[in-house]
Amino acid sequence: MKTFCGRANPTTGALDWVEESEEYDYHQEIARSCYADMLHDKDRNEKYYQGIRAAVSRVKARGERVVVLDIGTGTGLLSMMAVTAGADYCYAIEVFKPMAQAATCIVERNGFSDKIKVINKHSTEVTVGPDGDMQERANILVTELFDTELIGEGALPSYEHAHMHLVQADCEAVPHRATVYAQLVESDMLWKWSQLQPIEVDGNKLLPPPAVVKCAGAPSVCDIQLSQVPPESFTPLGPICTMFRVDFSKPVSSAAQSYTAQFKAQTSGRAQVVLSWWDIDMDPDGNIVCTMAPSWNYSDPHTYPWRDHWMQSVYFLPAEENVSEGEELNLIISHDDYSLWYSLTHSQNINMAPFRPCCTCQAHLVWTRPRFGELNDEQRTESYVNALRSILKPDSVCLSVSDGSLLPIFAYLLGSKKVRRPFFFRVKRFTNYDLIFFTLQISVLMGEPYFSTSLLPWHSLFFWYCRTAVAQLLHPSATILPRAATLYIIAVEFQDLWRIRAACGTCEGFDVSPMDEMIQRSLDYRESLEAEPHPLWEYPCRALTKPRPVLTFDFTQCVPEQPVNSDGTVAFTGRGHCHGVALWMEYQLTEDITVSMGLTKPVREEGACEWNPHRKQGVFFFRSVREMSGDGRENLSYNLTFEPHTGDIKMNFSLSNDTL
């Protein structure tokens, strides 16, 4: 049996449906999962273990037999904790078949098969009774059904069903409750990720269309590592508010609800953004707390427990509102069964019904949050405007190849007033039918390039394929912008991101190596030979080598017929653990103007890197980590091949020592 999977095709700019074996989808899910990240989350694991021990003790103190229901068991870790804590029996539910098989293997290896039953079903399909999946209802409910938004993985419907059908009325729950917090802030940096801002081009002020300005935007959460957003980039307009709590030991409703936090504005400003996170109390008294608060909310930021499976949330208000210091405000949070959204009212509008934001301008459905930020980047805009100014002539005929780009408007505003307008055409695929629309030879072919289907840095080479497709329409002296692209690499030591690919071995004393083996098998299926996209501005790292250009793509020429290969070595100049290689593109707009999709500043002496916040970079993780001395005798060896027929780049990296 075969399965169809979507893969970005750099040669067409489209998302192609490729036929893969039936195992591919499973391997993809496992290889790119965050299971390892959760197992390395020591704070999470310890708090769960403490909460489970306390819950088992409370049930035993009542003289009852301890029966545990573990929904979303994953590796079976929480079930093994429960049995070790003294539970008599545990039902471990896992809907993902490969994960259920791994849990069964882990349970057997740790000697708990007689007390833990792994059930490969969705919890809403589990039956209770003599012939059911469970022989009896549980009196302890243990779950890990949460995402960054708390309820985005269907926690509320799952809890609702469990209380109705799978657990006793007076059950204990671990976690016992969750609390959602929020803070209203003004932040130009974050607001630029939601609304298109006015742009200055040669004295002309470009205003976003009224439909975009009035649009409430998309209600979807923007989940990021809020610890990497500097506190100086936003101004709190109110206190951190407790928005609502959910008690998981009692019946839970998935029905839509709203909650209001009232407060006085701490300072005057523009209410734009809501920063949000949650805590979970593992016990009824709230003595065992696992918090998702960002590091700058800790009294000692160094004690912040890094995790990537749970981050923090940024929500954008439907429209920015001016607030005055001391003004009474009502911050409203609403939710359905899977998502949250925020709204703000003033004291005089306290009875105004909250509404769910809905994009009416289409821009929020087409552009991602980082794409909004990129279009609003003034320094980036200046680079493109300066480049266009240097190449445009009064009689220029321009063709723009990019998704949702403003370059055509910039070019028009920079053109001679004697020309009514340059000729623009949005190109996706080229056919003979398309070409008849071009009655003039193109003198300027321009692109950012940006394409919504691009996942990895080199996927934007679709621009090169478009340039090749319209070669016959180009004037002999046509200018191509950008004129070239260069792929760079740098070896790095990650502060924390390495955890998502690191083997765990044991976790809280339990052998979970079958999980490591399963992930590695899935990585070996294909993924270990590929880079994966990550927004590195969220994940601090240190450079262990100098940046090295490895492949250059000359857009003034057509795509070559034969593969382009590059190999060599880069000396390690920094001391540290080499976790992998970061890859990014830099575009040479003109002879003297270059824009980087990766490093935005030279690497500092200690190796600190600053990354472009609007594009994802590629990361190639090494299977094993090696400590480098940085004395120049150790090298990063690389071999990269650009395949013109697929538009992909095959890569191989290894670590070597000149003294070996």
Automatic annotation (TrEMBL):
Pfam families per record: PrmA (PF06325), PRMT_C (PF22528)
InterPro entries (UniProt xref): Arg_MeTrfase, MeTrfase_PRMT7, PRMT_dom, SAM-dependent_MTases_sf
Keywords recorded for this protein, A-Z: Chromatin regulator, Cytoplasm, Differentiation, Methyltransferase, Nucleus, Repeat, S-adenosyl-L-methionine, Transcription, Transcription regulation, Transferase
Reactions that this protein is recorded to catalyse: L-arginyl-[protein] + S-adenosyl-L-methionine = N(omega)-methyl-L-arginyl-[protein] + S-adenosyl-L-homocysteine + H(+)
Domain of life: Eukaryota
Compartments (UniProt record): Cytoplasm, Cytosol; Nucleus
EC annotation from Swiss-Prot or TrEMBL: 2.1.1.321
SUPFAM superfamilies associated with the record: S-adenosyl-L-methionine-dependent methyltransferases
A GO biological-process term: spliceosomal snRNP assembly
GO MF terms, alphabetically ordered: histone H4R3 methyltransferase activity; protein-arginine omega-N monomethyltransferase activity
Domain Protein arginine N-methyltransferase stretches: 176-345, 484-656
This protein's GO CC annotations: cytosol; nucleus
UniProt record similarity statement: Belongs to the class I-like SAM-binding methyltransferase superfamily. Protein arginine N-methyltransferase family. PRMT7 subfamily.
Free-text function comment from the UniProt entry: Arginine methyltransferase that can both catalyze the formation of omega-N monomethylarginine (MMA) and symmetrical dimethylarginine (sDMA), with a preference for the formation of MMA. Specifically mediates the symmetrical dimethylation of arginine residues in the small nuclear ribonucleoproteins Sm D1 (SNRPD1) and Sm D3 (SNRPD3); such methylation being required for the assembly and biogenesis of snRNP core particles. Specifically mediates the symmetric dimethylation of histone H4 'Arg-3' to form H4R3me2s.
Name used for this protein in its record: Protein arginine N-methyltransferase
Species of provenance: Cyprinus carpio (Common carp)
